[in-house]
UniProtKB/TrEMBL annotation:
Name the UniProt record assigns to this protein: Class I SAM-dependent methyltransferase
UniProt cross-references to Pfam families, sorted A to Z: Methyltransf_25
Gene source species: Dactylosporangium cerinum
Keywords assigned by UniProt, alphabetized: Methyltransferase, Transferase
Main EC class the enzyme belongs to: transferase
One GO MF term attached to the UniProt entry: 2-polyprenyl-6-hydroxyphenol methylase activity
GO biological process: methylation
Length: 204
């Protein structure tokens, strides 16, 4: 199965994209200010249980899950970075061959900064391919950037707000639990790069 994500501004499947993620996350001012603290808190307060992090990148949210998750990503360089950090992560092909690819294995699926990189139909195809591994009653959580964040990355393809992500969830048979803006109220997303839409849905 291939999920190479392409956009007019570049792709997310090469070494360059992994290097960019590492460069951005390793910026000195971000480390000094511990800017990930509120986002880590947000992930942990959801109490997701054993989580499959789809599109895990270099493992930021896997680290937030504190060992209670497995990552999968189409970029092998990013997966190598995850493993070097001591995280459990697989390329797509290897995940589907792994012991984790069993029905109902996970309490939750997390798709953080995934859906905006593809068109709607591809987003539904990607998410639906992992839904069998989510237990009945388990939650699917999707995090997407608001306006300023969407404009900040040339690999972003489709703006995916509450309506767009909610439609993907309902089209896939998931029940919407709640949607909220984080860490600041919704209008902040027009000027603050790191304001996010959070959608929580549940598998019947």
């Amino acid at each position: 199965m291939s999920e190479t994500v392409k956009a007019s501004g570049g792709t997310t499947d090469g070494t360059d994209y992994t290097d960019r993620l590492q460069r951005l996350s390793g910026a000195g001012w971000k480390r000094a200010l511990n800017v990930q603290a509120p986002y880590r808190w947000n992930i942990r307060r959801l109490e997701l249980g054993f989580t499959l992090d789809v599109g895990c990148g270099i493992g930021r949210n896997l680290a937030h899950l504190d060992g209670n998750g497995v990552g999968v990503d189409h970029n092998p360089t990013s997966i190598s970075a995850c493993r070097e950090a001591g995280l459990t992560a697989f390329t797509i092909e290897d995940f589907f061959k792994s012991e984790y690819a069993t029905p109902g294995r996970f309490d939750a699926i997390l798709g953080a900064h995934l859906i905006e990189h593809v068109e709607e139909e591809q987003a539904k195809e990607i998410v639906s391919s992992y839904l069998p591994f989510l237990r009945s009653g388990g939650r699917a959580v999707f995090i997407t950037p608001q306006e300023r964040g969407f404009a900040s990355d040339a690999t972003h393809v489709r703006f995916s707000g509450f309506d767009e992500v909610g439609k993907i969830c309902t089209d896939l048979g998931l029940t919407l639990d709640r949607q909220f803006s984080f860490p600041f109220p919704r209008p902040t997303g027009k000027v603050f790069t790191y304001n996010e839409f959070v959608t929580v849905a549940r598998k019947p």
